[in-house]
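Listing S7. Sequence submitted for prediction.
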Amino acid sequence: MRAFLVGATVVLAGCSEPPGISLEIAADDASITTVELFVGEHCNGCPGGMRPPQLSPKAADLYLVADPRPWTATVEGGVAGIRLESDTDTDVPALVIVGFDANHTPVATRTLYNISIPANDAVLWRTTLLPASPLVDIDTAHPRPPAGTERIKIWQSPNQTLPSCVMVEHWEADRVTRDALLPDGDRDCDAVPMAQECARYTPNAVGIAATIDEASCLLPVATPKSICMLGGPPCTEAGITPGQECDYLDEDYCAPLQLCACAPADAACITSAIAQGVSSNTLSHLRCTLPVQPDGSICPDHDPAIAKLDAGAMVQGGSTKCKRIALHDPMSLRGGFSDHVQFGTGTFKLTSFDQPCEAAIEWSGMLPLNPGGGASYMFAELELDNGKHLVLPLVIEPGECARPPSCAAFRIEGGITTETMFECTAPAPSSASCQASDVCPGPVCGGTCCGAGEACVEGVCRCGPTSRCAADQICGGGVDPAGCGSFCCKGASCEI
């Protein structure tokens, strides 16, 4: 009965109540027959918006509804009552009440924030539902509504037993805000099986750009200067077998250009390219030397081995700085980056970070030694404040016990190929227009071409509030005077 220690039961207003909040909901609209209560807790790690069905993506504060059962009450005499109970004093970040007519059409709503539910005291709250109209995209047929307007979108997959998804839009004179409350068990209410769910906040997703967690390949990107980027399969939750395509990620992860000779993802080729590039001093990389004994254990005087990894050379000459340095499992393009990785039977861990681009790296355990004492490799990520990322080989070399652990950065801009990865370190611009440039179908953005209808937002190509579109799509629908679209689509129906 209880979601994060909160329970709800139907109550009659005016009766003597046990501890908790007795919520008396006034429905001035006589057509309202039932109300449903959505109790939301903070959604840690959630994006800053989502795309409701039949709408363009919407920026919104997302909350999770933990209880798997809908909480409803009948309106009698213009009033409905619901009681919130808790075993301990509990704070509820967001609470949305929706009033439905006899056809189960949402016609009224009320949003409350930061509700404190007492464990030992009885409290009576009274609130009145506000009229609500359907949430639609703003266009010539649906102009901006006046201040004070509440709009609502509620959806649920057929045969779904979880609470519905609800997004409420609040219009003020100079801005609009939105709250979306989503069942934790199916955050986009599309009933797609978890094995097929690849976009948790886009119902029945089609062609959504993969995140770094789904990265799986190298992608040569034809921009004003060809750049090698990490790519992954776009998310389509029905009709396409996942993992068979390599397309843009939702953010740009730029790698040394030489590695794209191994596209899409030839692991042996990548290892060979790194080894040859490092030995010939033609490949930008990071390098750490660790004092180890012949069996790979850290020398006693240096256990744990701690060194400063200063990658500032990778962002030198401009105003762009690092926001974070992270590591990746050895020689794999799959999955995201972390502050620690398992390497053999030992662990690399980043313990601190300082701008412009420096971190303390700590090694403990056994260093796996290659035959002949050669170097080992992994990947490091430099997250930049222009919205982009550099992905660099990190070379791990065994060293002598007489020398302390050390790390260094090697920036190579010439060599076998002219390195274009550093185009991604350009300061973050934002475009006032989405019009095509001389060399791109959209604006040039930090060395990358944006697609048709996309905007350059702080150095990252964006379609509406979400990521860039797949290569076979444009950013269309509801195009504004600056030529900017609002959602990714393809075909004649979304021409700009």
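Caption to Listing S7: primary sequence and predicted structure tokens for the chain studied. The longest helix spans residues 267-279. The mean pLDDT is 85.
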